[in-house]
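Question (not urgent): is this output format expected?
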Amino acid sequence: MSIERRFEAFLWNSRLVVLVAVVASVIVSCAMFFVATIDVVELVRHLGAYADFHLAPEARMALRAATVTHVVEVVDGYLLAAIMLIFALGLYELFVSRIEAAEGSEFASRLLLIRSMDDLKNRLAKVVLLILVVKFFEYALQISIESAVELLYLALGTLLVSGALWLSHSKESVPPHRPANEPTS
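Got this back:
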C-alpha cells in the first residue's frame, strides 16, 4: 500500500473524531431533558400554593407570573435538549453513516432530512430562533411597563420577532425556482 493511500485512508477515517461531539451532544441533550423534567416536577409542586383560596390577590398574581415564567423556562429547556439531539443526529449522518434503525421510518424522514451542512444549519437555526422567541416572551413577562415609550419598545420587539418567524417560514413555502423552459408536472 502506497504512502498516499495510507494517508488518504487516515484522512478519511479522521472524520470519525466527530463521534466525540455526537456522544457529548447526546449526553448534554439527556442532561437538559433531565433538568427540564425536574423543573416540571418543581412547577407542579408549587401549583399547590396557587390553589390556596386564602392567598391574597397580589400574592396570587405574583405566583401566577412566576408560574408562567417557570413554564417558559421549561419550554426553553426542552427546546435546548431537542436542539442538541438534532445536532448529534445530524453530525452522525453527515460524517459517519446513515442511521439504519431510522431507515423506512416516516418519523425519521421528517426529522433526519439532513443531506448537507446547510440542511443541519437551517434545522438548528430554526430551533435556535424558537428558543430566542421563548426567551423574548420570558423577558416580556418580567418587564414592568412604566411609560408609553417602553410599551412602544415592547411592540417593536414583538414585531421584529414576528418578522423573523415569518421570514424563516416563508422560505419553506416558496417553491424552488424552475427555469422558464422547464415543463411543470
